[in-house]
Structure formats: C-alpha cells, structure tokens
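Why does residue order matter? Because the sequence determines the fold. Keep that principle in mind as you read this record.
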Amino acid sequence: MVTIKQETKKGSKQPIITQIVLRPPLRKTSDVGQWRTAMQSADMGRMKLLFDLYEDLLIDGVLADAVDKRISAVTNSPLTFQDEKGLDVPELTDLIDSPAMEELLTTIMMARFWGRAAGEFDFSDGFCFSQIPFKHINLKNKNIVFNEYDETGVDYTSDEQLLVIGKTTDFGLFLKTAPFAIWKRGGFGDYAQWLELFGMPQRVGKYSSYDPESRNTLVQAMEQAGSAPWIVIPKETDVETVNNTGTAGSSSAHDEFRKACNEELLITILGQTMTTLNGSSKAQSYTHKKVEEGKNRSDMRYVRRVLNKMVLPLLEKRGYPVTGGKFVFPEDAEPLAVADMATLCGLIDIPDSYLRNKYSIPVPKDGETIARASTSTSSTNGTPKDVPLPTPIKDKIAVPADPAKEKPVKLIDEDPERGITITKKSGFVEKLKGLADFFVAAPGRGATVILSDEKKVKRIINVDKLFNQAIKNIYAAEGIIDNAALIDEKIFELTNAVMQHASESTFLKAGVDWGKTNKVFTQQFSENSAVFSAFKSHDQTGKIVGLLTNEDGRLKSFSAFKKEALKISEEYNKLHLQTEYNTAVRSARMAVNWKKFQETKNLYPNLEYMPSRAANPRESHTELYHLIFPMDDPFWDTNLPPSDWNCLCGVRQTDEPPTVQPNNWQEPEVDPVFDNNPGETGQFINIEATNYYQDAADAKRADIEAFAREMLKQYES
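Structure:
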C-alpha cells in the first residue's frame, strides 16, 4: 500500500496559470528586419516581439509539421518508470499513461524550440500539469509574470510546483527557422503577383487608325470582357512581348525558392529532408531517417534528464514511491523470429498473454485441435525440451535477478491508532495525514496567508503579490486613484479578506444555529471589519502615493519607489495585520460568548475578569483581574476583553457576588480604541478612535465608508 499525498481544497493555493492575463499575439506582415529587431530586443531581456513572431510563423505547415514530428517521437515512445530493482511501479504506470504526462512531455520538448518552457503542477485532483505561455516566463528575473509586459511576478525558484526550463541566452530553434519562414511567406506573395501579371493570357485588340471611334468601342468591349490583361493597338502597328528565357522569368524560379526555404526549415528542425519530402533513392532516405532518429534519441535523453532531475523530487515529496527509481525510455528490442521466441520459452518465463497479443493468436476453444511443436523439440508430456540458446540470441537477453533472493524493502508502515501513514524515504521519515486537522494561526511575516475554516478554504491571500500589483497600479497611474475614497483596491483586498476571515471563521465555530439566530449581528460585524479595512487602506494608499516623487517633484524610478513602498508593506501588511487579525478573532469570540451569556443570565448574572494567558501580561490589566461585576454593569461597556491589541485577558460567567469596591475606587483608564463591547456594538474595536480614522480628512470619511460597503458586496458575492 502506498499513500499519495493529495492537495485538497483545504491546503491548495490558487494556481498561477489561472491568474495569467492572456493576450493575442501581435500578427502583422513580417520581414527579416523585424526579425533582427525582435532578436535585439530579446538580447535585452524583452521577449514579447520575438515570441509573437514565433507564434505567427508557426502557421507555416512545413515548420509546424516538423516540430510535431520531433515532439511525437517522444510522446509516442514507451516511457516507463523502474524502481531500484528494475521493476515497474503501478502508481507511476498510471501516471505515465495520463493526459497530464503528455502535456508535461510536450512542454519539456517545447524548450528545444522556444529556448524556454514552463508549467505548473496541480495535485488537488490527482496528477495534473498545465503549460505556462512562453511570453510569461522571465528567465532574467526568475519570475512567472501575469502580464506579458511585467518585469516581475511570482518567483519560480521558491514555488516547488513550477517547472521552468531554459537559459536566458537561448532563444530556441525557432530563431534559426524564422528568416526562412519569412522569406517563404514573402515568396508566395511574389508568386501570387507574378501569376496575376503573367499567368493569364493577354488579349490584343486592334483598330483602324483611320477610325478613332472604333478604338473607343474596342476599349469598352475589353473592359467588359473580364479581368484578363488586355491591350488596344492600331492595326498598322505591331507589339511584341519578349519573355525572359531564363528560369528567373518562369514559375519554376518561385517553386525552387519555396523548396529551398522548406529544406532549410526541415534541416534546422529534423536534421534532414527526405523523411518529409520525396527522396531520390531508398539508400539516401534510409540515411536521412537515421539522422532524424539520432535527433529523436537526443530528445529522449533530454526529456529523461529533466524528468529525473526536476520532476522526480517533486513526486517524491507528494508520496509517490519513486525513491531510488528513474524514468526510462526503453531501447527498441531487436525483433525475434518465432523460432527464437520458442527457444526463449525454455529459458525464461514468458507470459502466455504476451505471446498471444504479439502474434494475434486467440485462446483456443473447447474441442479445437491444438497446434503443437514437432516431436524433435518437445518432450513426451508436450512441454518444450531444454534447447541450448544460440550465442547471438543469448547476447541479446539480460535475465533479471531472482526477486525471491532480493531483500524486501519496507516502504510503508501504518499506525491505525494514530491514523497516519509513515513513508520512509531518503533517510528521513515524512508523516502524511490522510485527513489532517487544518489550523491557521494569525497571519505572520510570510508572503502568503492561508485562510480556512473547518470545512473549506475561504481565501488564500498572497500579501506580496497583491501589494506588488497595487504599487504597479499606483506607479502606472502616477498616484491617481480612480475612486472617491482614494483607496487602491488591491491594498483593500489583502486587508479586508484577512479581517473578514477573522470573524467568519469564529462565527462558524459557534454553530449554524447561532449564525442563523444572529444573522443581522454577524453582518454588522462584517461591515465594521470592512470599514476598518477601508480606513486603514486609505491611510496606507496615501503614504504610498506620497513616495512617488523626489523632493524636486520628479517621478522616482520604479525600483526606488518600490524599495520604499515595501517598507510600508512590512509595517502595515505584516506586522500590523497580524496584530489586527489576532484582535479581531478575540473580539469576535468574545462577542459570541457575550450573546451566549445572555441566554443563562438568570442563572449566572455576573462576569469575572480573568487574568491574561500571555507569558508577559500587561501591568495595566492586572488590577482588573478577578473583578466581578453584574452583566448589566456599565463596566463591561468599556472593559470587556480584549482590552488592548493582542490582549489575552478573558471573562467567565459566575453566580458569585460582585466585588465590593472602596468608595474612592476609580475605574482604570481605557484606550479609546477599546472603549467597546463587541457583543453589544457589533464592532471589534472603536474605529473612530483609531489613527486611521482620525487622520482621514473629514470630507473623505463618508466616501471611505461607502467604498467599504460597496466592496463588501463584491466580497460576499
């Protein structure tokens, strides 16, 4: 038994291939000058012009067919996976015989022609692979870009599910074929023009020079007689058309030019011409076929090395039993005669089904006469005698070692009590949980925040990606934000999604019935989180826009702008966002408890302020520890935990009597931001007391709140 580690919705990420913005190639009339310009642009790392040219030239049938022949030679070859004992692995056999593997092999081969290739693995539903468009592969910056004009994108060196092949200075075989495809296309245009001029018979009309009116009548008749070329001359004159007697003046010149271009295309891709074009002799065609097969073997070695060096480690991490094994393209075995096959049956075990399938021999029916070997080669009981194996045949056979003598390798241990499967690989033990509990802490300093609940993944927020998109938008628009709230939508998205999840996941844990009963309250909480996110995003957007220009008012370079903007992201979207998420979760949890406390208020009318669970509790909160007040006391309007950012204080419901305070006792000062009871207000904090709100212009606050409500509708949909 082998456990394959599958990515479920709970642990998956949004595929990069779905985020790429696809645009059609720039198709236009091309010449060799444009090819050189595109090549020079590629030398500087800008691949769009060259790759658009490649894609446009691939409509050439000869070129496309030659490329398909090389790819088909690999995809049609019998690829196998053999473990360290040389035996097939069933799990890998199924994987190899899948459409995803053919897509993977095709992608690897494409690197030969384009100079680069990339694809993305997806294990959420078995083994899947999708090719990434070539224009979105930036080898210089080691990125997969979402827009073909972008300079930066997803760092493929840090994403193990991305396969990228190629060298920055290699522009593939298409670079060599491009001029011949361009010349061939232009040659056909010239040929079409030549046919228009000389391919149709010319009509000559003659009129009498003494009758000018007859000329006009003749011209009118010629114009109405069709599109063939014509000429009108006086009868007394003579016109002679002199043809060029050389080949340049005939259609054969164009045909020779076409053939020359085709031959260059085929030689570049296949190394020869005669397996595609007519050969002059059988011997020459055989020689050319050998040349093509040599290229095919080279392609197979290339594909095999990529599979074993780059793909196998990924499969191993996913739990596929590939340790010690390798992908192999078996060499074609030399055909054996029936007599040789009969001899081998006496030496090695050959399945009966193999022989029947190989020679299309049906299984005999009851009562049918059975053909037998002659008595000279059979024993008295009908089984073949031991016949010495001829030396030429013996040299071709490699008999595998007896598996019974091999020491078995235990790959899998199972522990039913713990519900886990342990896979031993490469000297370390990896635990694969069939259905692991999914727990997500508060967003940390990493680039990706995965948000989930107990049933499914709600959001996967890539903070760095969204922020990079935001600063690109801001820089491209030179700080002009296209909404009244002056908020970049990407910045709002990364904050709001995290804050919404904080309350959503907490309310979900309270139960479906609780959510239905308190639907209006949860919607109010959600709106409050969106408004908070909007004011924070307005504040952050304004600071980023302020970084666009130098002291003299000139626009900074993007690299200088981005460097300073990333410092703001570190503060707002990683350090602050973690704290805000933690606090929102605890406020939502306290709001749920408050609502539940009301249900048993008649039995337990009081609440006790409980000590913090933090390792280093705030001294300002210690004086509140174990104070007991009635649930209706105004004390809880301002002091219900959390009482500060990341506060871990709590409360418990009790029927113990309230604490008796001295006459001069004063309630401790509360941070205005936390002057709030989330169970009553439906707010995780007092937004109006935050710096985000207070720093916003009075005239903009209504626009910011309206923006939050509008964006919340999109989030909920």
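The chain has a mean pLDDT of 77.
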